[in-house]
Structures are given as C-alpha cells and as structure tokens.
Amino acid sequence: MAYWLFKSEPSTWSWEMQKKKGDAGQEWDGVRNYQARNNMRAMKIGDLGFFYHSQENKDVVGIVEVCGLAHQDSTTDDGRWECVDVRAVRDVPNPPTLEDIKKNPKLAEMVLVKNSRLSVQPVTDAEWKEICRMGGVDPVP
DNA sequence: GCCAACGTTGGC
DNA sequence: GCCAACGTTGGC
What is the dihedral of CA A17, A131, A99, A18, to 10 degrees? Predict the structure, then answer.
C-alpha cells in the first residue's frame, strides 16, 4: 500500500466538490506534468492519498482512496495524459497547514516542502502517520 | 499582485 | 542534444 498527496486549488476542484461525488469518485484530470502522471500510473486500487488545498488555505483537508487505475484523461485527446479515479473517504478534522508541516522537523523532507509545484506526490509511511496524527484522523480509514 | 522555481518548447 | 525563451504554479 502506497501513500500519495493530491493537490488542488479549491476554486477549481475543492474537497467539498470531491465529497459530493461520493463513492463513485472522480477522475483526477487536468494533470499535464510527467512526474505527476508517472506517480498516478504507479498507483494501485486502495492506495490512500491526502487531499491538499493549494493557494487558499494551504492545508490537508481530506483523505481519498484510489478507486480506478490510470486511464486516458477524458479532458484531452492527447494520449500522453492519464489519470486515476479517486473517492473521498475521510475528512481531516484538524487540517494541518503548510505552515504546520514546515514547522515539523519530521516532515522536512516532504515533497510538498521540497518541490511545492508537483501536483501529485508520493508520501512516505512515516509522513502519512505524522500528518494523520496532526490532523486528528485515523491513519487507516 | 509579485516573483522565484520549475517544466516545457523549439531553434540551432 | 543543448540551452534560451517562455509559460505556469504556488507561496508569500
């Protein structure tokens, strides 16, 4: 089981919108970056990810589960771009902010800190547990 | 709103 | 294959 982090501007695609999709989930479309795409290609059904709001609150607001393997991104005909499907599984009651994350020495190596522009990122087991602890959510939903 | 960092494109 | 120019992202 691998862990990930999905970044989205709430004005484009928010956690609220994701939750409205329910268990059916939604494709994580619009990614036009090879690294992010490769991360999605590596995902397996049941992998978990943080849902992070960029630009506005800059916090980890939810947990999603991968419910569909990488497939053609329906928003483009360009065959280079693929995406997975994700569904919301948990709210994070105490959303850790980017500031909180930067202040935590255990999270200093997070991709979110090191390469803030990558929109789909891997998260290590230790980082997953630590952010879940900070957020007040069970690491195994 | 600004700007640094990064990724992509295209000319050579 | 290199690299300058350009566009985009996202923190501040």
Answer: 0
The backbone torsions φ and ψ at residue A82, rounded to the nearest 5 degrees and listed phi first, read -125, 165
Q: What CATH class is the domain A3-135?
A: alpha beta
Q: What is the structure's pLDDT at A77?
A: 86
d(CA A124, CA A99): 19
- Check whether A120 has a pLDDT greater than 90: yes
Question: Which residue shows structure tokens 């991104």?
Answer: A73
Chain B bases near protein CB atoms (7 A cut-off): 5-8
Footprint of strand B on the protein (CB under 7 A): A 32-35, 115, 117-118
Of A129, A127, A5, A130, the C-alpha closest to A61 is A5
Residues A26-64: pLDDT tens digits? 999 999 999 999 999 999 999 999 999 999 999 999 999
| Measured CA A52 to C1' B2 distance, in angstroms | 23
Name the amino acid, one letter, at A15: W
